[in-house]
Amino acid sequence: CAAGKVCGHYTQVVWRNSVRLGCARVRCNDGLWFITCNYDPPGNYVGQRPYNITSHGQNSPEDYLNAHNSARSAVGVGPMTWDVNVEAFAQQYANQRVGDCALQHSEGGGQDGENLAKGSGDFTGAAAVGLWVGEKPDYDYNSNTCAAGKVCGHYTQVVWENSVRLGCARQYANQRARDCALQHSGGGGKYGKNIAVGSGDFTRAAAVGLWVRERLDYNYNSNMCAAGWVCGHYTQVLWRNTVRLGCARVR
């Protein structure tokens, strides 16, 4: 755990060998709730990790390399290798673009070849390489030019024979990603809106949990919050005329 912090509850929750669960909840004399969960087999063995980290979503170095090297092999060009220094530069620049996702080349683009891509949803690294390789039909090797009105420079960079080291990075981008300010958007008048911010693996369920906890500070008879407290997030959650819901989460 981080210095001075507790993380054993989390590691027990995700402990890979704990496969049976039982929980209970009771109200204490002081009005608070007491909750306990038991796990079988138990976790948190000293010296053991709760789970094994695996690659997800076609975003690992191997995924980037395989996509590049497959395209290179198809035209008889040798494979590339992963370079952590090139990767570090790519990640540094990707972090700079987190606020806008602008397809604008870095100042280091003159030193290294550089391909950029952006997409929505679960846009993977492999999908980005697929976009670049998809330019292949628009490249003519004999004339060494792109088809009229077409772009093919991303593809030629992928298969460039003298490019032998590769480093890639992927980053989420959002207009609120730089500051995580709890500031409602301009559409707040059209839709009811609750917002929350948290650290670590702050989940959607945890955010809703924060809003629902305001229930204790809401008085139905007076239709008011307790003095000095906020309860509007809770009342929005259960507002009877609100029947459609849409949520989003960004890092």
Describe the overall structure.
The protein is α+β, with helices and mostly antiparallel strands. It has three domains: 1-51, no CATH class; 61-175, 3-Layer(aba) Sandwich (Pathogenesis-related Protein p14a); 190-250, no CATH class. The chain is 25% helix and 11% strand. The chain contains seven helices and eight strands. The chain has helices at 8-13, 61-74, 84-96, 125-133, 153-158, 204-212, 232-237; strands at residues 20-27, 33-40, 81-82, 139-140, 145-146, 165-166, 218-219, 224-225. Strands 1-2 form a two-stranded antiparallel sheet. Strands 3-6 form a two-stranded parallel sheet. It has a two-stranded antiparallel ribbon with strand order 4-5. The radius of gyration is 25 Å and the shape is elongated.
How is the secondary structure organized here?
Elements: H1 8-13, E1 20-27, E2 33-40, H2 61-74, E3 81-82, H3 84-96, H4 125-133, E4 139-140, E5 145-146, H5 153-158, E6 165-166, H6 204-212, E7 218-219, E8 224-225, H7 232-237
Helix pairs in contact: 2-4
